[in-house]
Amino acid sequence: MTLVIDCHGHFTTAPPALEAWRRRQIAAIGGDGAMPRARELAIPDDELRQAVETNQLAQMRARGHDLTLFSPRASFMAHHIGDFEVSAAWAAINNELVYRVSQLFPDHFVPVAMLPQSPGVDPASCVPELERCMRDYGAVGINLNPDPSGGHWREPPLTDRWWYPIYEKMVEWDIPAMIHVSTSCNPCFHTTGAHYLNADTTAFMQLLQGDLFRDFPTLRFIIPHGGGAAPYHWGRFRGLAQELKKPLLADHLLSNVFFDTCVYHQPGIDLLATVVPVRNVLFASEMIGAVRGIDPQTGHHYDDTRRYLDACPRLTDADRAAIYEHNARRVFPRLHARLAAREGTMP
Amino acid sequence: MTLVIDCHGHFTTAPPALEAWRRRQIAAIGGDGAMPRARELAIPDDELRQAVETNQLAQMRARGHDLTLFSPRASFMAHHIGDFEVSAAWAAINNELVYRVSQLFPDHFVPVAMLPQSPGVDPASCVPELERCMRDYGAVGINLNPDPSGGHWREPPLTDRWWYPIYEKMVEWDIPAMIHVSTSCNPCFHTTGAHYLNADTTAFMQLLQGDLFRDFPTLRFIIPHGGGAAPYHWGRFRGLAQELKKPLLADHLLSNVFFDTCVYHQPGIDLLATVVPVRNVLFASEMIGAVRGIDPQTGHHYDDTRRYLDACPRLTDADRAAIYEHNARRVFPRLHARLAAREGTMP
Fold this sequence. Notes:
The structure is a homodimer. Chain A is α/β, with parallel strands linked by helices. Chain A has 15 helices and eight strands. Chain A has helices spanning 16-29, 45-53, 56-63, 74-77, 84-104, 127-137, 164-173, 191-209, 212-215, 234-243, 249-252, 266-275, 305-311, 317-331, 333-343; strands spanning 5-11, 67-72, 109-111, 142-144, 177-179, 221-223, 257-260, 281-282. A five-stranded parallel β-sheet of chain A has the order 4-5-6-7-8. In chain A, strand 7 (257-260), helix 12 and strand 8 form a beta-alpha-beta unit. In chain A, helix 2 packs across helix 5 (84-104). Chain A is globular. Chain A starts with a strand and ends with a helix. At the A-B interface, helix 8, helix 10 and helix 12 of A face helix 8, helix 10 and helix 12 of B.
């Protein structure tokens, strides 16, 4: 029996007290009231349980997903707000909430951590929270925001040494990062309709231009939302790699770069399965996320990506098993260890 | 006999004197030497002829393209350099060169104008050059840069009234605009591998979010590079339109928004032809452009997009005639008029 592991889920349905706390924090930055303390946020287990049970978990059951790699809400990370201390307090709260969900539903949710990034602040500052989430919360991966400015892109490219303190820890803990931006505060970029996809494309091209995996041969990134524009323009990227005198994409990037399946229609998934090797594709839906409606053309949720994979004519059953389970276990070894322990096998 | 009209070609092979002039202009901005005058650039017809004949025209003949809508080199527009006067001098020179090419090879090249945009400067300032190109050069369209900052995205979205002076002239002259950025000076964004595609996705989402075509029902835009990420994520965009309470994409955008075929591999073109109605697809290659190499998988140029269209199993001969010729004549009425005059028919 193949497990169906969704490698990309956010806690988008947290109880409203979370947002209320954040509003107080933001007000305090502006000098309006005292900075709230973490312990002033009290969300009882019952509320947490209900927030997940009636939303993500209900949908997972309906769609036949077994497990979600669950991280704090991406658009709420909003690393552009305040300074490092603000991000640190906010990340700690969100990571703890996600951990508690994973404790309430240990068979269904496994934590992925957000980082307390802040514009212009040395990423080394994120290491303590990263390690806390690995050590105390059993997190199996992180989300890394390549643009903590929220749409102004002032940080160096991901291949720059600026980011190496994070990469060193990723290698040490043997965890991958999903490259995931947050809310856009640039009016040119709609958050989920432009900024997210642009960030995916941008990250892929940064990795293509550089030689990061020479320095970190085991570093692994997941590019969400089906890789932004990359698979649709695979020929362009193959051609650009050639112009830049890089090796073939398969050799240059595909031991280290993976794509999720958050592509919300059949032809998109078919394209992804056509151009990207199966071992580089990880099942995901980002449910409940950016696109919550029902597609009138199919009668099903746009983000019910399992249906597209099940219907994709190019994929064999073995391919689907790789996409649903085995690739995730390979890319997230800490997830594999956890599952192996549960299954009573050695990791 | 169907004409094969490439709606997206730039003069990327201009004689080196052009770049030398530009270097002097840029040096003068920095206080190094006097600002060069336009008449100091002298490129004889023979040099122009050769620059095109051995490059674009040779490839057009080899690939069976009849006609290219030809505009100044996109990456050289570099609207972020200097002020309006700098852009005005540079646009005038480039538009004249493209016009001269169209005079030397009237059966093969038709001018499309660049605009003298400059960051933060009222787009109304571009109207005189736009009208000069229409009136004196017989241009049939324009390229509009949604980000004259070159990767910092400081201008308002394309749906903002800021841009209306351009749109009013487009309607008056009945010309479309290709939305095309220029060089990225943001190190996060590789020019042709990220900035171009991001701009396409961004522009599409801006148009989706807004209601611009209520104010300008006949305004027409071409989104180049196959629409960036839009067709690959068509389900996402349909779903976002639904969340934003917009009409179906077909009703909301597809009378006004068109995609070119600059997608450099077969699966990408197949996807485009699957999700975007044929009447919204215009043939293009952007040859000679960003990706100049030969694809080792096919033995042909990556940008030889005609091969992918000819091989696309979804397209009928009538579809191909629409994509190669009829859509371009409909979207560019001034091109149609010119061709009709040449063909001895009434436009």
